[in-house]
Structure formats: structure tokens, C-alpha cells
Design goal:
single chain; 499 residues; alpha/beta; TIM Barrel; eight-stranded parallel beta barrel; 18 helices; Putative glycosyl hydrolase; hydrolase; GH; glycoprotein
């Protein structure tokens, strides 16, 4: 293990120079660079029980009494995009974006989760949405799973039960068959770490299962096999005719060593990065979990009295099957944390504790309306460089990046966030040669933010959740982002540049 970690230190030391200046990059993005915005089905659609839709795990959580959601909010109506999709597409067309990233509700297509009962009304909704997008020159980028698992599958164990792998691939086949002529960019999963650690480890996402150190690893193991199954299905049966691409959206912060004068801190930061993005990307790119994860969890499991590691093992056949199952990698990134090494790791069980590092954010860093979201623009460039060096310079799509506030229309802080983060992204492309194909702002509009309900706002468009019509109003940031899309530049005095 030590040799592997020392190699990681060599890599990360290359990144140790300060990237903290506030000078904005004034060079245009390449002509073929794509700008878009994102939403997710449960967060915006509403119509939770209409037209044959089945119950999802988020429906179940939101209807639990007492409710775990801030202000007892639900996604029952949300932004009502199920009924207002044409209005939404008109807003997207006015914004001028190249693509719209949205997700499909599994329960709207397969109410029971299984493929024996296909809901045509649900399919028609997504067919009409993609048709409307195409008619307005907007590329659909479809997330196949954004957290809203059918409750019927959760009743069987959800992502902890290997049965779900085949069920997901059956679901994927329907999507490819029914929508593949219109959809050329697919994402199998959004933020698998939140699905598994949040949903089955620390009970911060539906289905609110608390099984730290075991549940999240079982979930991840099955999710990775499901991803690989969907990618290989597309590659073998649909790619030739449909000519699309399939990736996955993985979330991570940048983890900065507290001190570059400390080899231990540098090792700790690399370990945390491998436990975060590497947990999912390493099997997909390299074939197996990061070695540092395997080693640390095996040692801790033995110390805890387990007969084998709490981290499941892939067979050699599974390693071969999962390796290489990506056409591009999605990156959801919002913030940065500092990492310290520790000689006294937390002995409690869990994914976060298994990394055996100390993660924190200084109080003086600029904040937002989300406790976890500190504004650290230089982290964007550093995480992109790390992805380039760690995964052989893959094609990358920034699938989420954004800022939360209280919903003000004069959202200058959001503009500042976007401008500085996109400038850092442009630096990574221009100065470091990172292969980024596009940028997706989260979110198109204020929406249901999971356990936070409607208390945190990420949208370019304000939504009046007190009105039955859910009126949308462009914020100052929408006007600013429209100009960025038009000019492909984050400042007014743009300079043309070639990569």
C-alpha cells in the first residue's frame, strides 16, 4: 500500500503551486464547447401520482409522518414541469443553451420497477419533452437514474440487493429502445456516492437506511455492475444505429492538503480523493476499487473482527466487464475541503471514517445558503487536473456546478460564483490541457432540494412555490448566463484563443 500512496504523492505534488488568484480568464471557450443547464425528475416534475406513475422512495420519504423534510415540503407538485414542460423549453430556448440535462423517473416508465408493466403515458411525456427540445435546437442529455428508485424495488432491498442489477438493465433497454433515436447523450447515474453513502450509509438521502460501513459498499457494488450492464447493452445493441454516448455523473469536491510541506497531509488528501471520485471512477476506468480503499477497509474490517473486508470484491470476470464502460466522465463539483492527516483516526464504522483523514472548511471561506458549499473557485481547476492525470485524460462533461442562496432575483453572488468557477475551468482547459466538452449549470430553476425542501435555491429562474401556476421569473444570473452562452466567454473583453 505504501508504494501506491507514494506514487499518488508524486502526482499531487505536481499540483502544489498556489492557484488562488482572482484574475478572470478572458479567452473564449472553443466553438464546439457546450453550455447547458440541469434539473432532475423528482425535483421539478411534480405529478407524483398522475397518469399511472408508481411510488418512488422519495415519494415514500416525503409522505412519512413526522416528515424528515424541512418545513414538511414535498415534491408532489414541485415546479410542475410535468404539465409545464413546453414553457420550460421556451425558457431554455430563450436562454440559448446547447443542451438540457434532465432525468427520467423510473416509476413513470415502470410503475412497479419491473418491465412487465410499461406505462405508455410516462413514455409519452419524455418523448414529447425530447421532441420539444429537438424542435428548439436543444440537445437532450438524459440522466437515467437521479435517486428516485421505485419503492417496490426498495421493498426488496433496493441497491443492496443484487436483483436490482438486472432490473436496472431492463429499464435501460426500454429507454434506449424508446428514446434512443432522439437522445445521444446518456448518464447512467447521478452522484452514485449520494445514492449509496447518503441513502444506505448515513441516512441523509432516500431511502434513509443507516448502515454505515456496510450498506453503502453493497449499494456501490451493485450500482457499478448495473452501470456496466447498461453501457455494454448500449455498446452491443444500440450504438451502431443510434450513435450515442453513455457516461456517468460522479460527484466530488477538491480535497486540498492542509500543508504541502507535510507528506502525510498530501497522502491524506489523495486518499480522500480516491475514496470520493475514485470509489466509482476507478472500477469504471481501471477495473477495480482504488487500492488505498481496498487496503484501508480490509485492515479496519479485520480490526473490527470481520472475517473479510466490508468492501466487497469483484471477480476477475466482473473487473473485465466493468473496466472501460464509459464514453465520457461526468463531474458534479461545487466546493473544496482541506484535508489533514491524523494519527488518531475515528474508530467508528463508515465510508467517511474508513478514509482515516480529517476534512474541514475554514470559517473565513466565502459561504452560501448550504452549509457544505464554500466558494473556492481554484478547486475547479485542481480537480480537473487530477482527473486528467488519474484517468488518462478522459473526455469530461461538467454535469453540475452551482450556488445556493435564499432565492433573491438580484443574485450577484451566484453570478460571481459561476464567473470564477468557469474561469478556473477555462484555465484547466487552456493551461493544463484538460479535455472538457461542456459545462452544465445547476440548476435551471429553483426546485425541491431533498431534505432541505425548498429552503435552498440554486436556480437561474425563480419559481413561485406559493402560486398554483408556479410562475418562473428570470434572475439576474439567467441574463448573465445567456450572455456567456452567446459569447462563450465569462467576461466582457473576450479574446479568441485556440486550444
Amino acid at each position: 500500500m505504501r508504494a501506491v500512496i507514494h506514487y499518488a504523492v508524486i502526482v499531487i505534488v505536481l499540483f502544489s503551486e498556489a492557484i488562488t488568484e482572482d484574475v478572470l480568464n478572458n479567452r473564449r471557450f472553443p466553438d464546439d464547447f457546450l453550455f447547458g443547464v440541469a434539473t432532475a425528475s423528482y425535483q421539478v416534475e411534480g405529478a407524483w401520482n398522475e397518469d399511472g406513475k408508481g411510488e418512488s422512495i422519495w415519494d415514500r420519504v416525503c409522505h412519512t409522518v413526522p416528515s424528515p423534510i424541512t418545513n414538511n415540503d414535498t415534491g408532489d407538485i414541485a415546479c410542475d414541469s410535468y404539465h409545464k414542460y413546453k414553457e420550460d423549453v421556451a425558457l431554455l430556448a430563450d436562454l440559448g443553451v446547447d443542451f438540457y440535462r434532465f432525468s427520467i423517473a423510473w416509476t413513470r416508465i415502470l410503475p412497479t420497477g419491473f418491465n412487465n408493466n410499461i406505462n405508455q403515458a410516462g413514455l409519452n411525456y419524455y418523448k414529447n419533452l425530447t421532441k420539444e427540445l429537438r424542435a428548439n435546437g436543444i440537445e437532450p442529455v438524459v440522466t437515467m437514474y437521479h435517486w428516485d428508485l421505485p419503492q417496490s424495488l426498495q421493498d426488496l432491498g433496493g441497491w443492496q440487493n443484487e436483483l436490482i442489477v438486472d432490473s436496472y438493465v431492463d429499464y435501460a433497454r426500454i429507454l434506449f429502445s424508446e428514446l434512443g433515436d432522439s437522445v445521444k447523450y446518456w448518464l447512467t447515474f447521478n452522484e452514485a456516492k449520494q445514492v449509496c453513502d447518503g441513502g444506505y450509509g448515513v441516512a441523509q438521502k432516500a431511502p434513509l437506511i443507516e448502515s454505515p460501513g456496510i450498506g453503502e459498499y453493497l449499494c456501490a457494488h451493485n450500482l457499478l455492475k448495473a452501470h456496466a450492464g447498461a453501457w455494454r447493452l448500449y455498446d452491443e445493441e444500440f450504438r451502431k444505429d443510434q450513435e450515442g454516448k453513455v457516461g456517468i455523473a460522479i460527484d466530488t469536491s477538491w480535497y486540498e492538503p492542509f500543508s504541502y510541506n507535510s507528506t502525510a497531509d498530501i497522502e491524506a488528501a489523495e486518499t480522500k480523493q480516491q475514496f470520493s471520485y475514485g470509489w466509482y471512477a476507478n472500477p469504471i476506468v481501471h477495473g477495480d476499487y482504488p487500492w488505498v480503499m481496498q487496503a484501508k477497509i480490509a485492515v479496519r474490517s479485520e480490526q473490527e473482527g470481520f472475517g473479510k473486508s466490508r468492501l466487497p470484491e469483484f471477480t476477475q470476470e466482473e473487473i473485465k466487464y466493468i473496466k472501460g464502460t464509459y464514453d465520457f466522465l461526468g463531474l458534479n463539483t461545487y466546493s473544496t475541503s482541506l484535508i489533514n492527516a491524523t494519527d488518531d483516526p475515528d474508530p467508528s464504522r463508515g465510508w467517511s471514517q474508513d478514509a482515516e483523514v480529517i476534512e474541514w472548511q475554514p470559517d473565513e471561506w466565502e459561504g452560501s445558503s448550504s452549509s457544505w458549499l464554500k466558494v473556492v473557485p481554484w478547486g475547479m481547476r485542481k480537480i480537473l487536473r487530477w482527473l486528467k492525470e488519474t484517468y488518462n485524460n478522459p473526455r469530461i462533461l461538467i454535469t453540475e456546478n452551482g450556488y445556493s442562496d435564499n432565492g433573491t432575483l438580484a443574485d450577484d453572488k451566484r453570478i460571481s460564483y459561476y464567473q470564477r468557477y468557469m474561469s478556473s475551468l477555462r484555465d484547466a482547459m487552456e493551461l493544463d490541457g484538460v479535455d472538457v466538452m461542456g459545462y452544465c449549470a445547476w440548476s435551471m430553476m429553483d426546485n425541491f432540494e431533498w431534505l432541505a425542501g425548498y429552503s435552498e435555491k440554486f436556480g437561474l429562474y425563480h419559481v413561485d412555490f406559493n402560486s398554483p401556476n408556479r410562475e418562473r421569473t428570470p434572475k439576474k444570473s439567467a441574463i448573465w448566463y445567456k450572455r456567456v452562452v452567446e459569447t462563450k466567454c465569462v467576461v466582457d473583453d473576450c479574446v479568441d484563443a485556440k486550444l
